[in-house]
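Two proteins were folded this term; both appear here.
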Amino acid sequence: QLGKAVFQPLTENAGGYVRNNAGGYQAMLNYPYLPNNFKTISLTDVLANRISKELIRDRLVLIGASADSLKDFFLTPHSYDNAGTTVGSPGVFIHANIASQILSASVDGRPLLKVWSESQEWLWILGWSAIGTALGFIILKISLSKKEQWIGLSLYLASSGVLFITAYLIFLAGWWVLVISPWIALSASTLFIASDRQQQLQEQAYIDSQTQLVNRRYFYNYLEQQWDKERNKYIALIFCELDKNQINNKQPKVTRDSYLRQIALAIS
């Protein structure tokens, strides 16, 4: 503890880390400033005494190099400019951010980045997976009844947006939460439920529940596909007619159903 702040040491699986080298006493750094937010003075101005005393009064002064030739640059959350170009931060700027965070947290009470426990992270991921499961059923119901696929897509995009916005708001409160893994869980569960249920409904629409053979609707669709596929070729159709003396309406329904199941099994 230092002043108002308590610095929790980083663990090897904290947040998005996996088997991180967490030796020593490391803490998460929440970069508050861009590199150009720090006042810099060249060594030439120092040697020529061209600096004001007020510029360094009651301040921390870090001495370091920012020349490209020294290659003392590191990637940070601010390593990309507006054009998407990678711009590393000199090591002295990273040290300045560390010093700024320690002072701000200790003196002003600025929140430090915290992480959830592993069990809390799993609940976070499983929760979004459950939302994706419910979303899959909703999308399937909409697509079957209204044939408006764009509504389902809009619901999925809205759910993804809620996930990212929620994670960002939690981050602003000082918590580092997982984003990609719950988004994958949300997307995968939505797609799996919708596609699996869609396939089940299609099977129910094309398969006779009594004999487990395909029905007339499937036969016509299949015949049309084969006709288009095998155009200008021969197609063979085999017809099987049941003897009316063996199966007729005078027999009990149980008997007729038993006949039909046996014949269907033989045909299969």
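Next, the second protein.
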Amino acid sequence: MNATDLSRVIEAVGKDRGIKREIIISALEQAVLSAAQKKYGINAVLEAHYNTESGEIDLFQFKKVVESEPEMLEESEEIDIGDARKLDPDAVIGDELGIKVDAPEFGRIDAQTAKQVIFQKVRDAEREIIFNEYVHRKGEIITGIARRIERGNLVIDLGKTDALLPRSEIIPGETFKPGDRVQAYLSDVVMTTRGPQLYLTRTSPKYLMKLFEVEVPEIREQIVEIKLCAREPGARSKIAVTSKDRDVDPVGACVGMKGIRVQNVIQELKGEKIDIIPWSDNHVIFVRSALAPAEISSVRLDERNRTMEIMVEDDQLSLAIGRKGQNVRLAAQLTGWRLDIISKTKLQKRTSESVFNLQHIEGVNETMAQGIFQAGFLNVRQVAEATIENLQKVPGYDDAENAQRLKDRAAAVVEKVGDMLSSGVVPEDGKGSFTAAPAPIKDAKALAEDRLREMMRQAGGGAELVEDTGETETKPGDSEQK
């Protein structure tokens, strides 16, 4: 290959593959070195450099200048001082002298080796380009074409590369056929030995938030902000929004004229219901909004344990809980509080039974028992086992001595009757109340372990790609709601 041909190849490969010229030149230099090393020996110190003026790759062999008898000279590594001074008059013993040598003629095996070296360099460069392009797009919505199923994961063609949409990240009930357009959230970009691996999701709350960012200009302009999001993919979601401009209604901005904006998001999520609520830094107000459309009668806070006991009218109980506990469960995830929903009838029953129970303490009348109950104590045993600091929160017992006397009298009752008054309440039948706790936040390690377990579970089977019908089916049971 002459200089003109070599320059043409460099330009053509760089243009077709989008790879920098320097990377291609480095690959060619490496290929020449691999062939030259076989000709001059593994101990020879060689360097190859692309000559931009001549358009050729120059090969240099570095030898140490020594003074030695010809028969003792290691020709591949050493050069006699006399020969060295013919090339460089200033050479002295101990110098490293670079001598230009002829590049080897490429035989069939050498040409194959050089070809592999070049291809590997080009492949690595392409992988690096793809990784750098998509790592900066992490957290964006990506659109591609469904191609096939691999180990239960849907492979999405993005043009330059493929991405994986795991079965667990597909909305329950969704089905995709080869050639379908698929939109998803780019959750992670990882460099592996096989190149960059892109992971997509359609079930993450971040995908829902990003969809609203696309549909709502006020969110893109940072006038409206989505503070929190809780989601049960394919069923129902709740988002809490706030506005930095008092003249802009955050809920109205997300809903849009005649609901067009939120309907576009719902359509993309295959009919998933979305509740948009105003965010508030007042926990009680926020929880009331999160449990809408149910009407809340009263809320009792336990800030230390981040628990709220919420009383509703009997006819509002099922509405507050929602189908299979969905409404209160999403509200708990959204607010980060443990929510205990109880009907008015059951709360009144619990109150009367607790007040009756607490009156067994010597010197405690009905009014005092009401105060103890309001402080969070449901029975005599709880009073007996409470700390003095907690008992001082009871009205009339803020003095440590009075609190200690109350504790001692309760302990005396427990010692006398045992567990007979430990509850004082009829055993719970599960009716008239419901409890929901916020979902635990998983760290990166836990998410990686979940992904590994899912891949191992899918390794034995998974969805099938039926070529003759062109359908890829993912059944609702394949992806469990979290």
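The first strand starts at residue 45 and ends at 51. The chain has a mean pLDDT of 78. These notes refer to the second protein only.
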